[in-house]
Structure formats: C-alpha cells, structure tokens
Amino acid sequence: MSPHILILGGTTEARELAAALAARPGVRVTTSLAGRVTRPGAPVGDVRVGGFGGAAGLADWLREQHVDALVDATHPFAEKITANAAQAAAASGVPVVVLRRPGWRPGPGDRWHMVPSLTAAAELLPRFGSRAFLTTGRLGLAAFAHLTDLHFVVRSVEPPGPPMPPHTEVLLARGPFTVADETSLLREHLVDVLVTKDSGGAATAAKLTAARRLGLPVVVVRRPPLPQGVRAVPDVAGALERLGLGSP
Ligand code: NAP
Fold first, then answer.
1. Is the pTM of this model over 0.70?
2. Which of 128, 138, 127, 196 minimizes the C-alpha distance to 165?
3. Class of 4-102+225-242 per CATH?
4. Residue 30: CB within 6 Å of ligand 1?
5. 169: Cβ–Cβ under 8 A, 6 or more apart, which residues?
6. Fold match between domain 4-102+225-242 and domain 111-221
7. Distance (Å) from CA 81 to ligand 1 centroid
8. In angstroms, how far is the first alpha carbon of the chain from the final one?
9. Which CATH architecture best describes the domain 111-221?
10. Contact 81 CB / ligand 1 (< 6 Å)
C-alpha cells in the first residue's frame, strides 16, 4: 500500500519536502497548515488547514487517516506544535522526523546580542538604539508595546494588531529579501538596531549581512529547545533519508 506522510508545515522546507515526496511514485503526502496566513503558498499534494485540538487530536488524526510517518517541518519557534507532534507520535506509534533548518551563526564584524526571549529582547533594546527594525513576527509585538519612546519599523506578512508600540511603522512583505534591499531599508528608515529571532535559512538572512555592513547591533532571540530526546535533521535530504525515501 502507498505510504501516507503527514507534514506539519508553514515553512519553505515543508513545501520543498512535500514536492520531493509527491515526486516519489506511490507516496501520498498531506501538508498541515495552522491557517495563520491568508494566502499561503500552496504546497504540492493534499493540504489541510487548522489546529488538531492538541496532541490527542493530532494522534487521533494520525490513526484515522492511516498516516505512516509524521514530519514536523514547522518553524523553529513554533514550540507548541513541535511538542504536540512528539507526544502524538509516541501515543500513536507513528514514527516522527523533525526537520529544523540550522540556526544562524555570527561572523566577523557582527554585533549580535543573544537573548532567551522576546521579553528579554525588549528589555535590552533601549541600550542599543532608538529606531528598531523588528522582524520577530506580528504576534510577538506585544512584548515591545511598553516601549513608548522608541520608533519601530515592523515587517510582517499579515498586518499586525494591538497591542503594539505607539510609534510603529508597518511594512507588509514576504521574503526572500536581498542584501541590497535590506541595506536600503535600514538606511531609509534610519534604523540603528535590528531585532530578529534566530529563524535560520537563506530567505531572511540578508538583513543580518546588511546590519553587519552598516555596523548595526542586532538583538537575536535564541530558539526554544527541542523536546527531550529529539534529534532533528537539518534539511530535506536528511528528512527523506530518515523516511527511507532517500533516492527517488
Ligand atoms: P505554535 O504556537 O507552536 O502552535 C499553536 C497551535 O497552532 C498548535 O497547538 C496547533 O493547534 C496549531 N498549529 C501550529 N502549527 C500547525 C500546523 N502546521 N498544522 C496544524 N495546526 C498547527 O505555532 P505558531 O508559532 O503559532 O506557528 C503556527 C504556524 O506558523 C506553524 O505551522 C509554523 O510552521 C508557522 N510559522 C511560525 C513562525 C513563528 O515564528 N512561530 C514563523 C513562520 C511560520 P492544535 O493544538 O489545535 O493542534
């Protein structure tokens, strides 16, 4: 019987994996999206949208839909669904592969300040500048809402809602971004500090190069840890290998 693979998606890697799996004869692939983005790039294969109702709901779904393997290819900061995936896999006996792109690494000339949370980033921020470029996602803006003296340039895919800082300029855009564009953006908006999560990946890394070139400090929010005992693969090839589908 053809194997059914469920990908927990919302990332570039999840889309790439869905395309790679769909190209294997006899493999059925379903991608699950949380439904946060209004017009997500449609992955190849079947797509389902919305939460499962916790780990138990996901475990039920795995059994009901006869899923043979689960791939958690969600964003490194999507902590809840990753915990749910590990629990649901254990409860249902369905094997799970966690695909996590590697985090970014500072290079010579970088002025990075690593912090454990958005709250810590907001605490540190006023020490480094007064015009911040914030790329931590629209749902994390609340952590900065009390910084009434700072000016924020916020970039997100969907328009953010309150609470947010009073002096906020919103730029709606979806990556990938180039170093030239990021450099212009930082210059035009007179940005003197950048705040980012350690999302990793090429699509949004250009801002870090632009910040380095302009000598700007960067506040980087560290990733949450993976659930105990979980060892992730760093790329699509690694995920295919773990699934036993390494060669087309
Ligand atoms: P989260 O806090 O880990 O998850 C919250 C709840 O959303 C989960 O408990 C689950 O609901 C539902 N959910 C999350 N991902 C899902 C998926 N792929 N399919 C079905 N339900 C899902 O997640 P988040 O940080 O809000 O991220 C939501 C989605 O956006 C993820 O799929 C992630 O890959 C993507 N994303 C997140 C970020 C980020 O910075 N966090 C950035 C880019 C993309 P139930 O418990 O009801 O199942």
1. yes
2. 138
3. alpha beta
4. no
5. 151, 152, 153, 154, 189
6. yes
7. 6
8. 18
9. 3-Layer(aba) Sandwich (3.40)
10. yes
